[in-house]
Structure of Pirin family protein:
Amino acid sequence: MSNIVLHKAETRGDADHGWLHSRHTFSFADYHDPSRMHFGLLRVLNDDQVAAGMGFGTHRHDNMEIISIPLEGDLEHKDSIGNTTVIRNGDVQAMSAGSGISHSEYNKNKDKLVKFLQIWVFPNKRNVTPRYDQITLNTDDRHNTLQQIVSPNADDAGVWIHQDAWFHLGRFDKDYSVDYTMKKSGNGVYAFILKGDFTIDGNELNERDGIGIWNTSKISLKANSPDAEILLMEVPMS
């Protein structure tokens, strides 16, 4: 029998700093809920909107795998290992903080919001050499299918991280169904609804809802609205 945890969109932490509006699925910064510290090794799922021309000043991370998925607008990244890049919808960025990396993130545009997901996953090894990776994907390749965007393998589709984790994005027509099979025994999957409505293993979910499922080998998805979008994050549970 599978285990399920359901997080409705409106129950997330809500931090409005003026220049930044962030919704936290799991405890982060001033939002603390002991029952919502993580899902397995998925530690942070932040749904961020950054005002025009604003951003996060230089700050440090270590021993965390950090994945950024832009949803709208252009996000400029600079880091202490020499990267200056812009990521936009269709791109995926991975940063292994390892022994320590400093970076900044700014909305490159002076006239519109940037919206992105910031996701943290605990690594499977500590103090690795910091690294940065960024790819541009063909978003048509996720129409009515699940497009892999993160894996543990440098020679596999998507960016790679130091963890037995696989992420997929999908965009589905109404009434389209698909199954997702776990890549590794013992892993769980956390599904986050980016747009529209889905049924996942019999549970009705709406935009920005999240559901974590473990002790199962596969889950079943069905889109209940046109152009419905979903992010799946398969992670070890311990």
